[in-house]
Each structure stands twice: as structure tokens, then as C-alpha cells.
Give the backbone structure.
Amino acid sequence: MTPEEIVILVRVLAALVVGASIGFESTFHGRPAGFRTHSLVCLASSLLMLVTVYQNQWMTIVPLDAIRTDPTRMAQGIMTAPSRPLPCSRRFDSSSDASPPSSTRTIPSPSRATR
């Protein structure tokens, strides 16, 4: 292994260890995002940053003018993405009087008599 590959491997393993430790603490306190979620998020973030940093060295066939990388923009995207709520993450509170959003209504299944 080259020294560069060792550095990459150490960074990926460090991200996995940090994510696992954060996830273990989260699981210990009973939060929904636990060990597996935090491990995968940290691993994916590390891999995305490594691809951004080493993109010019790994993609030698593509002309340098075609690749426009900015590691700081990738880091900004990684840091802000988990804080954005997903459209499907809205939950309907059953204790309220409001009806659920129309996107969550179910279509009745056909009855057996029509078959």
C-alpha cells in the first residue's frame, strides 16, 4: 500500500469510529437515529470528502478543465444536508383535530367480492 492509500484508509476508519461512538451514545439514550445511522452518515461524509479532495488525481482521463472541484462547497453541503427536513418526515399528530395531509391518505383496496 502506498502512503496515500494508508492515509485514506485511516481517515475512513476514523470517521467510522467517530460515527459509531456518537451512534452508540445516541442509542444508549434511546434516540431514533442510533449506532447504524450515525456510522453510515459519517462514513458517507468521509467518502464524499475524499472523492472531492482526490478527484483530480483519480480522474486522469478527463481533462482538468472539465473537473471543477471545491472541497469547501462539498463540506458545506454535507454539513447542511442533515439539518434540512425531508418532505416525507412530516408526521401527523393523532391528538390534533386537523386532518392528515392529503398525501398520506390511503386508497381503499378493492374488495374480494369484485374479483
About this structure: The mean pLDDT is 76. The CA atoms of residues 8 and 40 lie 17 Å apart. The helical segments are 3-28, 35-58, 71-80.
